[in-house]
Write a structure and sequence with these properties.
Blueprint (H helix, E strand, L loop, with lengths): L1 E6 L2 E5 L5 E5 L3 H12 L3 E5 L30 E3 L4 H20 L10 H28 L3 H4 L5 E5 L6 H12 L4 E5 L7 H4 L5 H8 L4 E4 L2 H15 L3 E2 L4 E4 L2 E7 L6 H10 L9 E8 L6 H14 L7 E8 L6 H21 L7 E5 L4 H10 L2 E4 L8 H9 L7 E4 L4 H5 L4 E2 L5 H12 L3 H17 L2 H11 L6 H7 L1
Parallel strand pairs: 1-4, 1-6, 4-5, 6-7, 7-8, 8-11, 12-13, 12-15, 13-14, 15-16, 16-17
Antiparallel strand pairs: 2-3, 9-10, 10-11
Helix pairs in contact: 2-3, 3-5, 7-8, 9-12, 9-13, 10-11, 10-15, 12-13
Bound molecules: adenosine-5'-diphosphate and 6-O-phosphono-alpha-D-glucopyranose (G6P).
Length: 491
């Protein structure tokens, strides 16, 4: 398998001696895909997070103390894509983060449409496609039975909104080179309704790019239906909504809901081993997010403030621990959010803090996996309230780590993919601040037996539908997995 994504699962940094070292990347895509590539001995094509000037400088191996799944990714399995820094900036910050990210999260007012960014998106996608073709040729060469025998066909899995054009070029080049391969695409963010999608001036090209694949996957059925709808209304494709099929260029493309999961057992293990880091005197409400405006962090702090106003009995007994990892710091919307959060945390803490207690503990930074597992395990409430989110893995990691009896409570927004599938969580519309405060109060006062019942169901589902299940579902949707059922049929 060759995985292609904008970001590699690590970013490269230089240490004091100028030597390159790896640092783990944060974000749902990397968390989910790293185990797939490592366990499947695949190749990963992506950007290393730094502009390497010396073309011969190579990727270092991981640190021996690294315990993340990324550690198993050997440098000879990594293809680092090098793009001119100015083009990269316009493609990544301009097109991906200032246009697609807000638009696909149905926040078009935050998007800035610029033709220049789109042109650089096209150039960057071409570069990723070319690197993938080079990698594909090397795979085929090292296994010369591949194409000729028609078996063991290489599988290329393209990820996310950064690379919506690349698949079509990969397909065309592979056909020209006479190399057989299968192409799949997975979008880790929502696919918006047609009314929003069509605001993008080059929306036809995006659909044509994605339809270069044999199968296009999304987290939930709603996103699949939005995509199918856009193919029909923008491109005039014949579609089958029931079976989620789109006809395009003489081919039939499958569209599939493939809700992503987490490495459940690994989180349980981390939670079992992690030392205690939180004080037991107060109940902790936990938020863990990239610092991103889609995560509803400002609404969340206001809901917590409203809780302290309406239910003063929680003062000195409950704290909100918000961990926010810095993200996309070159983009103004993200800089503004950082400032707004700093001010809001300061104001709420200034208003309620007593000599013995601060209502909000705010960590602006990444935390280690061990520490994260301990936070998840020892918090009374996991507060996951995005305004919009493709899936949200934090909700799943929280329930995996809830190994204590009695457990805590998960609160989740209906506007995250996780809100569609984690039925036993308390569902909270983050836009309505006072109701959100009431839901937090309900979670804080929920009887033990109800907490146990809800958490048992949530954990059971996430254990079954973990990241391995997601990968198997992807392979099955690609027709690349022979299941027991297939054997039975043949037998
Ligand atoms: P997104 O994909 O938008 O970043 P997800 O919730 O799906 O959101 O995935 C976020 C991933 O990043 C999770 O695996 C989570 O553990 C990790 N993460 C988020 N914030 C932090 C943090 N402050 N420190 C360490 N890891 C984090
Ligand atoms: C989300 C996106 C990923 C992205 C991650 C972190 O999870 O779906 O594609 O990698 O956010 O964002 P960044 O811009 O730092 O890669």
């Amino acid at each position: 398998m060759i995985v292609v994504s904008n970001r590699l699962p690590f970013v490269l940094k230089r240490n004091k001696d100028g030597k390159l070292i790896r640092k783990a990347s944060a974000g749902g895509l990397v968390t989910a895909v790293a185990p797939v590539v490592v366990n499947g001995n695949g190749l990963w094509v992506g950007w290393p997070g730094i502009h390497l000037e010396d073309p011969l400088e190579s990727i270092p191996e991981s640190d021996p103390n690294d315990i993340t799944p990324t550690a198993g990714l050997k440098s000879n399995k990594v293809v680092s894509v090098r793009i001119d820094p100015k083009i990269f900036d316009s493609y990544y910050n301009g097109c991906c983060n200032e246009i697609f990210w807000p638009l696909f999260h149905s926040m078009p007012d935050r998007a800035t449409f610029k033709g220049e960014h789109w042109r650089n998106y096209v150039i960057a996608n071409k570069e990723f496609a070319d690197c993938t073709i080079t990698a594909l040729k090397s795979v085929v060469k090292s296994d010369n039975t591949t194409a000729s025998a028609g078996q063991n066909i290489p599988l290329i899995w393209v990820h996310d909104y950064h690379l919506m054009l690349a698949a079509n070029w990969i397909r065309q080049s592979a056909e020209e080179e006479g190399i057989a391969c299968k192409l799949g695409f997975f979008l880790h963010i929502p696919f918006p309704p047609w009314d929003i999608f069509r605001l993008f001036p080059w929306s036809d090209e995006i659909l044509q790019g994605m339809l270069g694949c044999d199968m296009v996957g999304f987290h939930i059925t709603d996103y699949c239906l939005n995509f199918v709808d856009c193919c029909q209304r923008n491109l005039g494709c014949r579609v089958d909504r029931k079976n989620l099929l789109v006809e395009h260029g003489g081919r039939t493309v499958r569209v599939r809901p493939l809700p992503i999961g987490i490495p459940f057992d690994r989180f349980v293990e981390l939670a079992e081993k992690a030392p205690k880091v939180l004080s037991t005197t107060q109940k902790i409400i936990l938020g863990v997010d990239r610092l991103d405006y889609t995560k509803g962090l400002v609404h969340r702090l206001r809901a917590f403030e409203s809780l302290l106003e309406k239910h003063p009995e929680h003062k000195e007994n409950v704290s909100l621990l918000q961990i926010a990892v810095p993200s996309r710091t070159d983009v103004k919307e993200y800089q503004d959010l950082k400032e707004e959060m700093d001010q809001l945390v300061g104001r709420i803490n200034g208003r309620f803090t007593t000599p013995n207690w601060s209502p909000i503990r705010y960590i602006y930074g990444a935390v280690s996996q061990d520490e994260l597992a301990a936070f998840y395990r020892d918090s009374a409430i996991g507060l996951v309230t995005p305004l919009r989110d493709g899936m949200n893995l934090v909700a799943k990691e929280f329930v995996a780590c809830q190994i204590n009896t009695p457990p805590g409570v998960l609160i989740v927004s209906p506007f995250a993919g996780a809100g569609e599938t984690m039925h036993e969580a308390l569902i909270c519309n983050p836009y309505e601040i006072t109701s959100a405060a009431e839901i937090i109060h309900r979670a804080l006062t929920m009887p033990e037996d109800e907490r146990i019942l809800r958490m048992n169901y949530l954990r059971r589902r996430e254990k079954l539908n973990d990241v391995n299940y997601w990968t198997r579902s992807f392979l099955a949707a690609m027709g690349s997995l022979v299941t027991q059922d297939d054997h039975d049929d043949i037998g």
